[in-house]
């Protein structure tokens, strides 16, 4: 996005932590322990999908946060697509954060890059940012590799480019196959079969070189040997004057050489799993925002899909059902449908009769105060505690209801800042200030949250 560090996908009511906007349930202040004790996060993180050096296509930087009570040490290994590497050692103060530009001197400047991060001590998390001329995007890096990765959504058009980045954190090479489900059917380009991802290295594929003029693309990565971490980077330039502009995710558009209407960039970590259930704590259609739920069915049986919306106390919920064929991608744009509760913020739940992958995609143009594109993978399940990066709105949704608290590190301790009580199927919006600061959000029962969040366990 062009201005903030993060895109608040729905402006559901912003407030300072001294007082929050509650979309369901009461506003009573609650008593809770003043501090929580949490188990350290993963010590190994993998990041990719950016380019090295300012002024390049998608220049990236790492953000390493320490939400613990003690400092941590970090070892960062930057790897370029051409094999060049650079190692960095650094320290992060308790409750603080450090930014690390993904850059190289000399010949690797502008190359696609990856980062392998090892954390020692503390309770750290690693995020990745990308800033381009048309917008910015941010997401948590991955604490785990996998032989399988899925992406639901993406385009390659006259103003839209899509790159697939695979990083291998292990000391042996991996071999992968890449296949797609597009608006023109299932596709398996020969050049993307048997791709070697070097040990502790990076492989990047320009999807547009293999697929041309595809308005809707879902991607499946399958490793023959080894495990990898998969990212997609979608870059959308401003549409040329007079270009045909498809409406939302209308994959039936037949206009010659169409273009996407909203410029921006989306850096997306794939999903390691399919599921019959996907959740989003935030949803809705503020003015200027087009909202789409992309559902990818990589299986061999049809998926009967239901999208259910929870408006949180502002009217009754609604749902809509449709079918996604085998090895197919289907995009449901909510704008213009009365069942989508126009003007109302809601949580969303996609269920399916067979395992699928589901993403909420957003195009934000005028008159929205925040412009650009975003892609948000749904949550398979909730957690009682989340580590959430500050800098924008964060929404929490509780299917069962109950207290929700926000904790902030102050004077070396994680202190409760605010608490509210939610009704069943209720949600609340908090404004979490501080672009390089993290918060802990805790519910009495499992909750879903929006934003850059990592699930925590209590010690």
Estimated radius of gyration: 21 Å
CATH topology call of one domain: Hypothetical Protein Tm1070, Chain: A
Largest sheet: 8 strands, antiparallel
Shape: globular
CATH C-level class of one domain: Mainly Beta
The CATH level-2 architecture of one domain is identified as Sandwich
Overview of the molecule:
With 459 residues, the protein is mainly β. Among the domains are: 21-38 and 382-456, Sandwich (Hypothetical Protein Tm1070, Chain: A); 44-140, Sandwich (Hypothetical Protein Tm1070, Chain: A), CATH 2.60.290. Helix content is 1%, strand content 52%. It contains one helix and 32 strands. It has one helix spanning 207-210; strands at residues 21-22, 44-51, 60-66, 72-80, 85-92, 97-101, 112-120, 124-132, 135-140, 148-152, 160-167, 174-182, 185-187, 195-197, 202-206, 217-225, 229-236, 264-269, 275-283, 289-297, 303-310, 318-324, 328-333, 346-364, 372-377, 383-389, 392-398, 402-410, 413-422, 426-432, 438-449, 453-456. Strands 1, 26, 27, 28, 29, 30, 31 and 32 form an eight-stranded antiparallel sheet that branches. Strands 19, 20, 21, 22, 23, 24 and 25 form a seven-stranded antiparallel sheet that branches. Strands 10, 12, 13, 14 and 16 form a five-stranded antiparallel sheet that branches. The model is unreliable at 1-35 and 248-253 (pLDDT under 50).
Itemize the secondary structure elements and their pairings.
Elements: E1 21-22, E2 44-51, E3 60-66, E4 72-80, E5 85-92, E6 97-101, E7 112-120, E8 124-132, E9 135-140, E10 148-152, E11 160-167, E12 174-182, E13 185-187, E14 195-197, E15 202-206, H1 207-210, E16 217-225, E17 229-236, E18 264-269, E19 275-283, E20 289-297, E21 303-310, E22 318-324, E23 328-333, E24 346-364, E25 372-377, E26 383-389, E27 392-398, E28 402-410, E29 413-422, E30 426-432, E31 438-449, E32 453-456
Antiparallel strand pairs: 1-30, 2-7, 3-6, 3-8, 4-5, 4-7, 8-9, 10-16, 11-15, 11-17, 12-13, 12-14, 12-16, 17-18, 19-24, 20-23, 20-24, 21-22, 21-24, 24-25, 26-31, 26-32, 27-30, 27-31, 28-29, 28-31
